Amino acid sequence: MKKIAVVGSINSDYFVEADVLPKTGETILGNNFFRALGGKGANQAVAASRLGAQVTFFGSIGNDDNGNFAKDSFLLENVETSFLNVANNAHTGAAFVEISNSENRIIVIPGANSHTNKIYVKSHLEQILMHDIFIFQLEIPMETIEYLIPILYEKQKIIIVNPAPSQLIKQDILEKITYLTPNEHEYQLVLDQPDSSMEDALSKFPNKLVITCGQEGVKFFDGSRIVNVPARTVQAVDTTGAGDTFCGAFAVALADGKELSECIRFGNIAAALSVQKKGAQAGMPYRKDLDQFLKRS
Ligand code: RIB
Predict the structure, then answer these.
(1) Which residues contact 257 (CB under 8 A, 6 or more apart)?
(2) Each residue of 19-31: b (16+ CB within 10 Å) or e?
(3) 272 with 214: CB under 8 angstroms?
(4) Which among 10, 56, 150, 194 is least surrounded, fewest beta carbons within 10 Å?
């Protein structure tokens, strides 16, 4: 089976839950607080591993309790972390996630994720190139992505970029990405097309631009028409990490050799199953969960 590498972020997610989120200047009493492993990179690695892929994570933690917590969690999740960078002068990334009625708001403090830089990936290039499918997000420095993608492209690797949090991606990098997976709020900024309709944007990147639109499904242009792969409807408890589950599952389906619309369908099912528990990773399905769901539907 093809091997997946995630080059990305690790955060400790601090969840606070309340019936309603406070307005500016307001103090409210919440209902619940917990910490869990998160970060878009870590989430996507765990999602792919639970679905049976061989996954290596390249990224950075601080020399602190949260860093050890991340390492232990990865071990339990069967994600290879031999090349993890421990930054002595930074704390492990942290995310403050407010959840209410299945909606969320997140602030990320990158910390050690800023050390997943060009120097780090350059020093592990040989190990990085042993993989076939690569997943990036934008919670690590852009210089890392701009350095690695041209190298991976030359080697004809499959490159998935989940451009979140959204930032502009340069044209020459965009051209080298195999699949770009923004959501409906991100694609205009990422592509530097502020006035572009979704249809226009999609038609410029056939079989490459995959826009996730929550309950509206996932859209791409197949070269002759825009295809919408419908979302699966479930009762959502917490949607944090649903996009990450989609990306991890999408990569696994690619590794299995599935064609694009099938990969999206697989990602959609995994994402739907993931929102039934609180926390980014708690609800991420294992392969058997997904197979059971497929048998029932
Ligand atoms: O996509 C969800 C993730 O975004 C959270 O786990 C949080 O760490 C932020 O990176």
Answers:
(1) none
(2) eebeeeeeeeebe
(3) no
(4) 194
Instruction: Catalytic residue, from 13, 64, 238, 244: name it.
Output: 244
50: left (phi > 0), else alpha (psi -120 to 50), else beta? alpha
Which amino acid, 186?
E
Spacing, Cα 262 to ligand 1 middle (Å): 26
Q: Helix, strand, or coil here: 89?
A: coil
Does the structure show a pLDDT above 80 at 297?
no
DSSP reduced 3-state for 57: strand
Residue 133, beta-bridge partner list: 4, 158
Per-residue model confidence (pLDDT) at position 264: 98
Residue in 40, 46, 77 to alter for ligand 1 test, most ligand atoms within 8 A of Cβ: 40
Instruction: Report the nearest atom of ligand 1 relative to the CA of 38.
Output: 6
Residues recorded for the chain? 297
Domains of the chain: residue spans and CATH: 4-8+40-64+79-85+112-296 (3.40.1190.20)
The 10s digit of each residue's pLDDT in 163-205 is 999 999 999 999 999 999 999 999 999 999 999 999 999 999 9
